[in-house]
Amino acid sequence: MRTFQQLRIYVASSYSNPMLDDLLAAVRGGGHEVYDFRASGRGPTRIFPARESWTPEAYVDAITDPIAQTQFAADLAALNAADCVILATPCGNDAHAEAGYAHGRNTPVIVHLREGFRPGLMHRLSNGFTADIPSLLFALTRIVPRDATATGDLTAPDLNPFPLPSSRYA
Q1: Which percentage of the chain shows pLDDT scores above 90?
Q2: How far apart are CA 18 and CA 114, in angstroms?
Q3: Which end of the chain is more exposed for a tag (fewer CB within 10 A), N or C?
Q4: Inter-CA distances, 148 with 43, 44, 83, Å
């Protein structure tokens, strides 16, 4: 029987994800340390005001601003320290870039699919999919910290059309 292991978790998502607070509370309630990128108070409107009308030059200027650089450094440090990443959908470009970065570092990534997610073939790079909090919390018990290869497939049984006999859910 496996013993409980506290994980450092990076939740890659969006400020506008309406389920983010519930997800963070549930994962923390499961005993894990969770980075909340919103804690700095440097939200998208503070870092990127009027971003819908930017030119490429204005965009590059904004992401090199000291406020944006400070937030980037904090997020990257937390991402580098994470034992695993939860890609909490619906989310956008930054969250997907964070998940891809984690995958490239062999950090386990779980895609948590919720109402409003946008399908993407490259989600297959992840270690699996969950669609509810109990399945997500169970999948977290199967994480091998910072080792996506050893972690293997964590897709929740109700989402897996071809479960393997060696499934970690077995």
Answers
A1: 70
A2: 10
A3: N
A4: 30, 30, 10
Cβ neighbours of residue 158 closer than 8 Å, sequence gap 6 or more? 131, 135
Q: What is the pTM of this model?
A: 0.89
Cα gap 106→151, rounded to integer Å: 10
d(CA 110, CA 139): 8
pLDDT at res. 53:
81
List CB contacts of 57: < 8 A, sequence separation 6 or more: none
For the chain, how many residues are written? 170
For residue 124, the SS3 value is helix
- Structural domains in the chain? 8-159 (3.40.50)
Joined together, the tokens standing for residue 24 give: 């963070």
Cβ(46)–Cβ(65) below 8 Å? no
3-state secondary structure of 145: coil
Nearest-angstrom CA–CA distance, 82 and 7: 8
Q: How far is CA 69 from CA 58, 66, 76, 120, in A?
A: 15, 5, 10, 29
Q: Quick check: 155 and 125 in contact, CB under 8 A?
A: no
Output the pLDDT for position 97. 96
